[in-house]
Design a protein that fits this description.
By secondary structure, this protein is an alpha/beta fold. Helix content is 35%, strand content 17%.
């Protein structure tokens, strides 16, 4: 009976975390903190938007592009170095929160979700 209760409690915790869209291991990075964080050693900024969204411009510090909606998303993320720090962003923060949570649950210990995504970015976007 105790084991059943533990399984139910674990499932409820997982559902709660999924509903929140962000793992407790994922930190929120405010827009004003982006430049300082991106300039730290071993920090990678990842854009998880679609290729067509990226064509419209991206945050200049982004050096990795992994489409969250792509079938290869999980495979591509698992190729990344888990020892680095990652700042993940999308259009408004929803997909990046899910992507960051996935990363946190797969061995990445330093993951940040950029608050508000590219929609709240006030700098000049870079074009491909």
């Amino acid at each position: 009976m105790i084991k059943v209760k533990q399984v139910i409690l674990t499932a409820l915790m997982a559902i709660t975390l999924a509903a929140c869209g962000q793992s407790s291991n994922v930190k929120t990075l405010k827009q004003k903190e982006l430049n300082a964080k991106a300039n730290e050693e071993n920090v990678v900024v990842i854009d998880v938007r679609t290729p067509s969204e990226i064509q419209e411009g991206f945050i200049p510090q982004a050096t990795a592009f992994v489409d969250y909606t792509s079938a290869s998303f999980q495979t591509e993320v698992q190729k990344l170095d888990t020892s680095k720090t990652y700042v993940v962003y999308c259009r408004s923060g929803g997909r990046s929160a899910k992507a960051a949570s996935f990363m946190a649950s797969h061995g990445f210990s330093k993951v940040y979700n950029l608050e508000g995504g590219i929609n709240n970015y006030s700098g000049t976007l870079k074009q491909q």
